[in-house]
TrEMBL record:
Residues 24-44 are annotated as: Disordered. Residues 86-297 form the Alpha/beta hydrolase fold-3 domain. The lineage of its organism: Eukaryota, Viridiplantae, Streptophyta, Embryophyta, Tracheophyta. Residues 25-37 have a biased composition (Polar residues). It comes from Acer negundo (Box elder). This is Alpha/beta hydrolase fold-3 domain-containing protein.
Length: 340
């Protein structure tokens, strides 16, 4: 039985190659994914481009910056209504990728255009050079910057009372933990009022293997050995996968904050799919939040696979669900899903 269990959790894949890094003798890593295409911001785009974007440095010493997306329609002088704010955190297992990758740029562009929202995509510090909670610290620093900035894209066009935190994969984990921190400093974040969280295939873990991890042991996009390595590189030194940063269902830690989230009336949408080795982890977190009284919705588990941002143009499909969620959250007077 022991040999059978071991065989079920042994991967034939090199985890370092799977996440596009090379280990160095001093325990550091060299990232080898330099060929992922990047794109610059377009603060002065051609006339046919419907969304402006620009980069702003938040913390130069930590290389924390944001890419801000503003729908061109907001510049129409006849429009007096302000736009909701979506703060987005990219994926990459806390270890790879950046906010200027073309896939993340295009996704945020589409959100801004189709939902008519100001989108702030955050570039946070990566592990293992900066292990968790560094990324959580960076995104909170970004929220404080948004609160204080005099940038006209915010002061003229943002409705701070309609803020959502959104993330994909590791970014979904970051949105979750940023939300928990935000729930404990509601007054300090004013005028920002977080209304909810949107977690797309969030990256959670645990020591005990779940069924989907065993079933998709050698998944082509995210094999089990790769998730183990990502947690090893990103969690605090000496921590295992039952740390609260990885496993929200462990006793103590983040569980006590969920009661505050319930009192605030936030809503949470969690998306997942059966093609994701972490789907059972996501279901565990959904059940946890439902027990705590948050509205959680787990959608379309059968149509897609993990790594959806890298596997074709499905942005419109995802935005349909996201817009439906936002419509419900904003109430019957919100015909666009976000705007009054």
């Amino acid at each position: 039985m022991a040999n059978e269990t071991k065989a079920q959790t042994q991967s034939i894949i090199d985890p370092y190659k799977a996440i596009h890094v090379k280990p160095n003798p001093d325990s550091s890593i060299t990232r080898t994914n330099n060929n992922w295409p990047k794109t610059p911001a377009t603060p002065d785009p051609p006339h046919h481009i419907q969304v402006l974007s620009k980069d702003v440095v938040i913390n130069q010493s930590n290389n924390v910056w944001v890419r801000i997306f503003l729908p061109g329609e907001a510049l129409d002088q006849s429009s007096s209504s302000k736009l909701p704010l979506i703060v987005y955190y990219h994926g990459g297992g806390f270890v790879i990728f950046s906010a200027d990758l073309i896939n993340f740029h295009n996704f945020c562009f589409d959100i801004a255009e189709k939902l008519q929202a100001v989108v702030v995509s955050v570039e946070y510090r990566l592990a293992p050079e900066n292990r968790l909670p560094a990324a959580y610290d960076d995104v909170m620093e970004t929220l404080h910057w948004i609160r204080d900035t005099k940038d006209e894209w915010f002061t003229k066009y943002v409705d701070y009372s309609k803020c959502f935190l959104m993330g994909s994969s590791a970014g979904g984990n970051i949105a979750y933990h940023a939300g928990l921190r935000g729930a404990l400093e509601v007054d300090d974040l004013l005028p920002i009022k977080i209304q909810g969280l949107i977690l797309h295939q969030p990256f959670f873990g645990g020591v005990k293997r779940c069924e989907s991890e065993r079933r998709l042991l050698n998944d082509i996009i995210l094999p089990l050995c790769a998730t183990d390595l990502l947690w090893k590189l990103s969690l605090p030194v000496g921590a295992d996968r039952n740390h609260e940063y990885s496993n929200p269902t462990v006793e103590g830690g983040t569980l006590r904050v969920l009661d505050q989230v319930k009192r605030l009336g936030w809503k949470v949408m969690v998306t997942g799919c059966d093609g994701d080795p972490l789907i059972d982890r996501q279901i565990e977190v959904v059940k946890l939040m439902e027990e705590k009284g948050q509205l959680c919705r787990e959608i379309d588990r059968h149509r897609v696979i993990r790594g959806i941002l890298w596997c074709g143009d499905v942005t419109a499909y995802r935005l349909t669900w996201g817009n439906e969620f936002l419509k419900r959250k904003m109430g019957p007077g919100s015909d666009s899903g976000l705007r009054n």
